Amino acid sequence: MDREALTFKTEVRQLLDILANALYTDKAIFLRELISNASDALNRVQFELLTNREVVDPEAELAIRVEGDEEKGTITVSDTGIGMTREELIENLGTIAHSGARAFLEHLKEGASAVELIGQFGVGFYAAFMVADEVEVITRSYRPQARAWRWRSDGQETYTIEEAEKEGRGTDVILHLKEEAREFASPWRLKQIIRKHSNYIAFPIYVGDEVVNERTAPWRTSPQEMTEEAYIDFYKQLTLDDEPPLLHLHFVADAPVNIRSLLYIPRKGGISAVTRRTEFGLRLYSHHVLIQQRNRDLLPEHFRFVEGVVESEDIPLNISRETVQSSRVIAQIRRALNKRLLKALRTMMEERPADYTAFWNEYAPFIKEGIITQPFDHDDLVPLLRFHSSALEGDALTSLADYVARMKPEQEAIYYILGDRLESVRHSPHLDPFRARGLEVLYLTDPFDGMVMQTLREFEGKPLRNVDDPALMLPPLEEEREEGDEAPPSDETLASLRERIKAVLGERITEVRPSQMLRGHPARLVSAEGGAARDFEQVRRLVEQDYRAAPRILEINPRHPLIRGLAARLERTPDDPLIELAIEQLYDNLLLLEGLHTNPAEMVPRLQQLLEVAVGSDA
Ligand code: ADP
Ligand code: MG
């Protein structure tokens, strides 16, 4: 077949453009990416060989070779891996089939560095163009009848494919180095980069006759022989993450199942960056063979953000990827790992509280999801929960257990308030009666917190109660009215004010009633139905367009100057348009404090009118 020219997909072209201009100091990572691809290809052929000897070159050593030619200015990275057919070449190197590419480009636009992201997005091959102005790939698939192909590109618009000569199975990637990158062809430099970035690759990496990498599998090493530095090094090579992890857990056991495992919690990688993490799961090995690249059955689903490696001699090598899931051994491993991980998190809470807070800030949504969806895991997950609280300064966090330890002897429940921002929650009128009685209130500002409370209902026998529950009873307070406190309006005046408010707000509220609870605030909104509906509102507001809060009871504080003033004005000049404006604005203020206002900007024209009245128009 003749040489055929094909055009790169748009995203590939954009990517190549960015990489060609990458910082010089970052360029060395091209080698890590090519070696990582070679290693993936070897893993796959190794897995194939377990059940199928009908492949090209079944006896070939599973190895990677890196050769530099300083004269010619070339580097060749070869492997005896799975190879590629012509279709696979086009699919894998001509398009970015992986969803990662688009996300990668978007992150770049947001200012992330290309090198930090490159490995995580499955676009590593193109890193070759950081140092080469021409790349050749000569490859032959492991399939018995497969022919060899040469792919070639200068990293601009197009690439070509033609038939090639190649004896054995696998892939050679040949880089024709740019002038300024020729130093990479030196064997000394190649060895240095391999030791730094690819030391833990499981297959031998030859430069000349020498095997350069250590090939140790840290998870098979005994924990006594590992150093802190080695844990971090391995993490970086495994995940291509530049930052050290928040937690590492090296767990080795022989009974009831054989487990060699090394787990990590990345510092970044939670839901806030959900587009960044495209894949979750642990690497699963058995008898030194990688069975699965990303296994999600080795830990409960809510811990899917954990990275690492698990090996077990008890997993039969001929297990198919489909039957892994239902294997009894996997279930045993999962139980053991889950227990260890929880223990490690508890230790972290006690010994490294700042790191635990970092963990919580990053992974809270996963833990809450676990609580909402996995009733049997509550005992595991509830101790991990953290909340803001009226008893703490700033944005410090508390556990439910610590709240209970601070409870007053006569206190019957754990109280919480829902809102969308810490600042508005702190100023909520609902807190008046709790402040007056010195009762602590948890501040729940995450939309899913309400669902968590509904799911749990209680903690250590104490009910969880929303402060705006209409049925809520608090211990009576000795009257301690301040000197000079004004008397409330007469019953009659108050009744007509209540009537007017109801007339203005109509269906938006269910009723207007005087409050027993309020002190410093003029009014508050109380759930008419209470319970679950209220706790789910924050989430519904998030997912439903045009969501309007369910009508509530409006409680007014007859002793507050605003309410007294309104009542007096209504008596004096019932037709004053200011009355309606004030009622509307009061209601909007309350919605805002509840975190339920859908569009605060709507208030501006009315606020303007009120300001005009306040400033006076006689200027
Ligand atoms: P990723 O490795 O994350 O998939 P890359 O851009 O590094 O992304 O590689 C793209 C694809 O090209 C790989 O998924 C693989 O299918 C194919 N590929 C790259 N290098 C090799 C190789 N040495 N042998 C076989 N296939 C390869
Ligand atoms: Mg890769």
Outline the structure in words:
This protein is an alpha+beta fold and 619 residues long. It has 3 domains: 4-211, Histidine kinase-like ATPase, C-terminal domain (Heat Shock Protein 90); 218-352, Ribosomal Protein S5, domain 2 (2-Layer Sandwich); 491-528 and 543-618, Four Helix Bundle (Hemerythrin (Met), subunit A) (Up-down Bundle). The chain has 20 helices and 22 strands. It has a 9-stranded mixed sheet with strand order 1-6-5-4-7-3-2-8-9, with helices on one face. The protein has a 5-stranded mixed sheet with strand order 10-11-14-12-13, sandwiched between helices. Strand 10 (247-253) and strand 11 (259-265) form a beta hairpin. Helix 9 (328-351) packs across helix 10 (353-373), helix 10 crosses helix 15 (449-456) and helix 19 (577-594) crosses helix 20. It starts with a strand and ends with a helix. The model is unreliable at 271-275 (pLDDT under 50). Residues 33, 36-37, 124 line the site of magnesium ion.
